[in-house]
Amino acid sequence: MPFFVFKSYHPMNKFSDKKTLLSLLNKAKSVLILSHHNPDADAVGSSLALYFLIKKLKKKVTVVLPNAFPEFLNWMPASDKIILFENDKEKVKQILPKTDLIFLLDCNSFRRLGTDGLNELITNISAPKILIDHHRMPERYFNAFYFDDKASSTCELIYKFAKHLNWLNNIDKKIAQCIYTGLVTDTGSFKYDSVSPETMRIAAHLLEYNIHHTQIQQNVFDTYSYDRLKLVGYALSEKLRYFPEFKAAYIALSQKELKKFNYKKGDTEGLVNSALSIKDVQISALFTETDKLVRVSLRSKGSLDVNEIARQYFNGGGHKNAAGGQMTIPLDEVTKLFESIVQKLNL
Ligand code: 5GP
Ligand code: MN
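A: This is the predicted complex of the input protein with manganese (II) ion.
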């Protein structure tokens, strides 16, 4: 099978007009905000920022996430108000019939709500649905969109959404903290390709709210446990495979290895970027084995589109330079597959 290098991708955006968005909002009394399975800081930050913005309209707002977010986000304002579907399915089932508007954030398809039943519950309710997202190729079944796959983060889009609806005056310190957190994490502290002059202008405006940006960086990045740092050391010194001839590197961690370091969710975050930090590496991967599947994380430099590779081979998707997916074949077969893909890439 000839390998296809995806160069034909066209960026996409779709912004519903202010009138459509406001009419959906005006009709709603009870709003539900949802984001993806294994929520990251952009998912949590954008959900909470929108939560506060809509609360200011005197509406009932609930944030539901499919499963737990990383502990290092516990400091975020109102994070304790988030309902986790995995822990509170009954509560979510009670809220749904009373919901008359749904926002899906940082998540281009209801399938990314996970395999626990939330996807089906949401698909079957008739409340209108609005997508705010920056992932490529969103599903089309929404009533309104605020979508731009060139945006650095969903948090950036929440800011722009607020601006679009003339809500900028409603931004306060808490909202600024939430948005800033997603900006920082989804741009690797403002260093990815996705950073635009507008991203920087938004960050600058958020700093006007006297948010403690160094503290946010520390909260998010300097919270390693001793075990986590040892796991990172082990992964880099013992498990990093480098293929200079293919400009590729990967790390694969079995469940046994993860258990040895008392693995907790989030402990392998960033490892895939470390593999990419080798000078000539153009594509890196991290494979982590769980009970049911192998999680795949992909990163690339420049024009190499790992979103397409994730879609074609790893049941996933994401962005040009950062994507993910999952496989239900054994870990060693996943790594073999990756090796065969990079051989064909001609990097
Ligand atoms: P990470 O490697 O950090 O888990 O994910 C990188 C990017 O790819 C994130 O923006 C994430 O939203 C996206 N991503 C991760 N896993 C999946 C997946 O299974 N499906 C899709 N469509 N996107 C994913
Ligand atoms: Mn994001």
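Residues 41-55 form the longest helix (15 residues). The longest strand covers residues 283-289.
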